[in-house]
């Protein structure tokens, strides 16, 4: 029997190398395949949930935009009418008080020449004939009358007279003092040209 000569070691390596290369190629091909997930089938609806309770959002209309709230127009504040200040105490009244609307008798000698003085709501008259309409211009310190006719007494014209009533113990007006002024300047300075008294008889 003839023994086979031993094969050289170099002939075994090419077979082993071929197997190794085939395995590496198979792994590389498997790694290059796309990782596709398995198809999923439709999930059947839950029979315990009624169909009407599931909101159908496919047919729901889009929500309408809310309009901005209307704001009421601002009201212009009304102007409060200014109050008329109260008249001062020296502002003359419309007419003389009724307690002075009388015929007055002269009490002073300087007035005896002109006789009684009669006061009405519109004029003053003396027994000697002097008559004049008057305007009540002040009630400060008495009743100041502007005599429209500027009557003359002792040859002197007088534009103003001031009546200063006096009351008795019962509060009744029974007498008054009177001052005569030639013009407004004399009146402002209380520089009278004649002064006397009258009383009610």
Describe this structure in words.
The chain is built from three helices and ten strands; from the N terminus they run αβαββββββββαβ. The chain has a domain at 98-199. Mean pLDDT is 76; it is low at 9-13 and 84-91. With 201 residues, it is α+β, with helices and mostly antiparallel strands. It has helices spanning 13-32, 109-112, 184-188, and strands at 103-106, 117-119, 123-126, 131-138, 143-147, 152-153, 156-157, 160-167, 173-181, 194-199. The relative contact order is 0.10. 14% of the residues lie in helices and 25% in strands. The strands form two sheets. It has an eight-stranded antiparallel beta barrel. It is elongated. β4 and β5 (143-147) form a beta hairpin.
